[in-house]
Amino acid sequence: MRYGQFDDEQREYVIDRPDTPLPWINYLGTDAYFGIVSNTGGGYSFYRDARLRRLTRYRYNNAPLDLGGRYVYVRDDETGDYWSPSWQPTPERELDDYECRHGLSYTKIASSRGGIRAETLYFAPLNETLEVWRVRVTNNRTKKAELSLFSSVEFCLWDAQDDATNYQRNFNTGQVEVVDGVIYHKTEYRERRDHFAYFGTSAKDDLQGFDTQRETFLGPYRGWDRPLVVENGTAKNEIAHGWQPIGSHHVRVHLEPGETREVVFVLGYAENPKDDKFDPPGSQTINKTRVRPVIDRWLDSAQVQRGFDDLRAYWDQLLGSLTVQTPDGDTNRMVNVWNAYQCLVTFNLSRSTSFYESGIGRGMGFRDSNQDLLGFVHMIPERARERILDIAATQKADGGAYHQYQPLTKRGNNDIGDGFNDDPLWLILGVAAYLRETGDHTFLDEPVPFDNVEGSEAPLYEHLQRSLRYTLDRLGPHGLPLIGRADWNDCLNLNCFSDTPGEPFQTTENASGGVAESVFIAGLFVLAAKELAVIAGLRGQDGEEVVYRAAAEKMAGTITEHGWDGAWFRRAYDFHGTVIGSGENDEGQIFIEPQGICVLGGVGLDDGLAVKALDSVAERLATPHGIVLQQPAYSSYRIELGEISSYPPGYKENAGIFCHTNPWIMIAETMVGNGDRAYDYYRRINPSAREEISETHRTEPYVYAQMIAGRDAPTHGEAKNSWLTGTAAWNFVAITQWILGIRPDFAGLRIDPVLPSGWPGFEATRGFRGATYEITVRGTGARVTYLLVDGERIDGNLVPPAPPGAVVRVEAIRE
Question: Is this entry keyworded Transferase (predicted)?
Answer without folding.
Answer: yes
